[in-house]
Design brief:
104 residues; alpha+beta; 2 domains; three-stranded antiparallel β-sheet; 3 strands; rod-shaped
């Protein structure tokens, strides 16, 4: 995603527009510059708001967390049909849930 900011000659903001691609931004901006209200003294700034590519380590960590959540959910489903008298088992699963959701 790209952000185009157009400034007045006094550097106050005249217009802000967001675009999905650089090509869309370029096309829109070129058309705007042909409009009768366009001031040749306008300046502009383009910001690339595209998030950076995740590293393989970040992707692996996300996958680990996803699998961990699935495993905990499966354990919770198992508890529904398990003997609920086993408090220690319930406690262990709840501790895992808290770790997975980041509480503890």
């Amino acid at each position: 995603m790209f952000k185009l900011t157009i400034f007045n000659p006094d550097l106050s903001v005249y217009w802000i527009e967001h675009f999905n691609t650089q090509a869309e931004l370029d096309k829109w901006f070129a058309e705007e510059q042909t409009r009768p209200y366009w001031n040749r003294k306008f300046t502009h700034q383009i910001e690339d708001l595209t998030p950076p590519e995740k590293t393989s380590e970040e992707k692996a960590q996300e996958e680990f967390q996803r699998v961990d959540r699935i495993n905990v959910m499966n354990e919770l489903k198992t508890l529904k049909v398990a003997d609920m008298n086993n408090i220690a088992e319930v406690k262990n699963v709840l501790i895992k849930v808290l770790k997975v959701i980041g509480i503890q």
